[in-house]
Amino acid sequence: MDGSSTVVSGVVFVPEGDPPPGGRSVVTVGHGTTGVTAECGPSMYPNLLGYASTIVPLMKLGFVAVMTDYQGLGPAGGINPYLDPNTSAFNLIDGVRAAREMVPDTSGKWAGLGVSIGGQATWAAAELSGFYAPELNFVGSVALAPAADLSKLADLAQSEWLTHEQQIMMSYVVSGLTIARPGTDPGNYLHGALASNSAMWLACAGPVLKERGEQASRLNPADTLPNSDEAGAVLRDWLISIALPQRPAGGPLLVINGDADQTIRPQWVQEAVDNACAFGDSVQHIVRAGQTHNNLDPGSETAVWLQARFRGESPPSDC
After folding, report:
1. Residues forming beta bridges with residue 68, ordered by sequence position
2. What is the mean pLDDT of residues 154-177?
3. Angle between helices 164-180 and 229-241 (to 10 degrees)
4. What DSSP letter does each residue of 229-285 carry, written as one string?
5. What is the DSSP pairing of strand 64-68 with strand 10-13?
6. CA 68 from centroid of its chain's CA atoms
7. Which one, 37, 235, 247, 299, has the greatest CB density within 10 A?
8. CB-CB contact of 216 with 124 (8 Å)
């Protein structure tokens, strides 16, 4: 957040066998929300907290895959600035550099793949690729259900129209707000069950997850009502300041989301895509009918799109 250097952990996977001429391409993976504390780094778990299923297809396609834990998560510890797009983008790009250090026969070509806050991260990495890693060859980013622009959350909270999924997410959002705006009182935004056991709502593993599921059904709209208009404005201004897009991307984007998403509303994603198109970006946007935030199936389009980008083919665009 302040430009200083940090230590960030992650994990690198390499397919078996000899690499192709020119070396293997790298895909850097941005995982979704796992938590905001050190024990929530996927690299610390055999199943990567559920993200092993994301890595396996990349292995089958022959890519080197790297997944950052994000700053503050994993054995390195520290503070996790949840939702800060620059930090997560730098983490993803530095993951590519780390992978190339560990696997010398990789090429300089890389792409991003992320879901939810990882979708935000890989979108931000696309925007910062030329600035932060001019020595690498960025070919494109896939953003699945991306948390690109959550600024409407503040208005929904003030009108008590957040969905249960969004209310649960607010625990993480407020955590990020307190890092970005030091001195912010979480009690201005979280009440009732959300305020009584913050550790449970921010946990990433263990028996408390069952308890959290039971508590979630008992949330009421007032549990995420900002204490004042001033508190609502602080939240809104921060979310607007981190909303994507912020600048033209350094390569094409593939954006996929579900039209039944109750966490990141489809119209929010559409607005972000429209704004990216206004920047002159190349964006292919696919909306899955009936799919939600938690059951989104990216389909074969993701693999086909990534392979085509690494071959240097012209990207399709809906702009």
Report:
1. 10
2. 95
3. 80
4. HHHHHHHHHHHHHT-S--S--SS-EEEEEETT-SSS-HHHHHHHHHHHHHTT--EEE
5. antiparallel
6. 11
7. 235
8. no
